[in-house]
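Ops channel
N.P.: pipeline sanity check, posting one input/output pair.
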């Protein structure tokens, strides 16, 4: 029996789900053998060659994660797709880091099941086995070293998460400030996935007028509205077989959010003006520079859509929190821009490196690249010194220097006088509200400044709204 002719092993202890999954797989020609316990699954694996294992992580006699590790030792060339309930996504991500190919969050539909199986069957034998995890990570880091640069602890975590999520069909939800590299992260997810040879289609939901966004996402038929002079496939159709990246997803209008939710549930596209849906096979990656949970609380983003998309979160840290990454990025950009401009630069002076580490970089990587481009264009070459930098970045820099005690004392005294005599709870609320206002209502940013966990801040805000 060849690998492609071998059956799929379904490990699921609920009889009704056994019947449901087995029927869906049999209907498209897959042979399926079923195990209800870990012990039964191991027995079948020893006796029968299988092409793939569909594994529930909650079994009556053993943890599914432990079973997966043993079966990968027994059959390292076998792809594993794990199944888990919504509340156990962390366990599923842990399973992927241990060698699983993909995961399904219950309840899932037949389309999602078959897509995961088809995707897993494209994996080369042993490609994602634990033994090859180190080489896979090295490959990803090498790919990242061109434009997706950084060896800090924060970026090491990002690379590890990309390694885990890239090979699945799970939706990645990327957050982070503007300019932190969210699209580069999405590209890295695509390039390290089995869909790397398929299209990567990026759509900025905040840059397209809302009345045109539906047509851009789902396409339109000729004559469906004024100006529709021909049929046009949308981004979802263009991304068939690849990845659709929806940037600034929180800017999407509520009506279109409803249609996107239906698209995610059915994997079908209905262009504007069309009556017949079309099936597509698309992996979704989305991003926002806003706090998505805050958008849900404000009623600006559908909660059911949020939970459908927020499967594997990836937070891109701001440049100011990435340590020496700023130097790595600057040096790589200097070499690239110098080559493009036909000039010869030797690197960054020590005081430039010190300044770059200290700056807050509100525009993040995008701002840094603009600075380096400015230096290369306006100077002939050599070692980059502070005199070559744009005037706004040269030392002394007002955002780098701390205020002197003499300058800050009167301000602190006035602020303290305004708070004296007030209850402590009121003072706390005033401080929190002022911090939120300074950070445009961002709870995560305010929580970092106040040295609190975001969940604590959310509970306090919720308590105030009920008063």
């Amino acid at each position: 029996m060849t690998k492609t002719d071998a059956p799929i092993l379904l490990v699921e202890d609920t009889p009704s789900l056994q019947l449901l999954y087995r029927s869906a797989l049999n209907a498209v020609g897959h042979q399926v053998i079923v195990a209800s316990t870990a012990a039964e699954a191991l027995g079948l694996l020893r006796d029968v060659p299988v092409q793939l294992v569909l594994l529930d992580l909650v079994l009556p006699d053993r943890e599914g994660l432990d079973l997966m590790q043993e079966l990968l030792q027994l059959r390292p060339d076998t792809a594993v797709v794990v199944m888990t309930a919504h509340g156990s996504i962390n366990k599923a991500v842990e399973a992927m880091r241990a060698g699983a190919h993909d995961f399904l969050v219950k309840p899932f539909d037949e389309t999602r099941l078959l897509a995961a199986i088809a995707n897993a069957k494209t994996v080369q034998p042993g490609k994602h086995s634990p033994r090859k995890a180190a080489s896979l990570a090295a490959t990803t880091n090498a790919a990242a070293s061109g434009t997706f640069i950084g060896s800090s602890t924060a970026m090491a975590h990002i690379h590890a998460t990309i390694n885990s999520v890239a090979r699945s069909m799970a939706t990645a939800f990327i957050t982070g400030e503007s300019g932190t590299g969210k699209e580069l992260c999405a590209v890295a997810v695509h390039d390290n996935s089995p869909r790397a040879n398929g299209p990567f289609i990026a759509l900025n939901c905040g840059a397209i007028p809302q009345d045109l966004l539906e047509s851009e996402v789902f396409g339109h038929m000729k004559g469906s509205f004024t100006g529709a002079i021909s049929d046009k496939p949308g981004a979802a159709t263009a991304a068939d077989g690849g990845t659709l990246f929806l940037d600034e997803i929180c800017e999407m209008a509520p009506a279109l959010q409803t249609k996107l939710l239906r698209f995610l549930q059915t994997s079908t596209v209905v262009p504007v003006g069309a009556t017949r849906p079309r099936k597509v096979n698309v992996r979704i990656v989305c991003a926002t520079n806003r706090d998505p949970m805050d958008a849900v609380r404000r009623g600006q983003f559908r909660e059911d859509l949020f939970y459908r998309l927020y499967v594997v979160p990836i937070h891109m840290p701001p440049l100011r929190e990435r340590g020496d990454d700023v130097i790595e990025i600057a040096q790589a950009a200097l070499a690239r821009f110098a080559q493009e401009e036909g000039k010869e630069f030797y690197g960054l002076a020590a005081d430039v490196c010190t300044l770059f580490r200290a700056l807050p970089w509100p525009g993040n990587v995008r701002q840094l690249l603009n600075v380096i481009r400015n230096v290369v264009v306006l100077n002939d070459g050599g070692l980059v010194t502070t005199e070559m930098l744009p005037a706004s970045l040269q030392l002394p820099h007002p955002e780098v220097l701390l205020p002197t005690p003499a300058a800050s004392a009167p301000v602190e005294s006035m602020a303290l006088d305004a708070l004296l005599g007030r209850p402590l709870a009121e003072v706390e609320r005033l401080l929190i509200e002022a911090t939120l206002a300074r950070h445009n209502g961002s709870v995560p940013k305010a929580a970092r400044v106040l040295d609190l966990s975001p969940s604590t801040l959310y509970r306090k805000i919720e308590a105030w709204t009920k008063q």
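N.P.: looks fine end to end. The chain has four domains: 8-128, 133-224+231-315, 321-393, 410-466.
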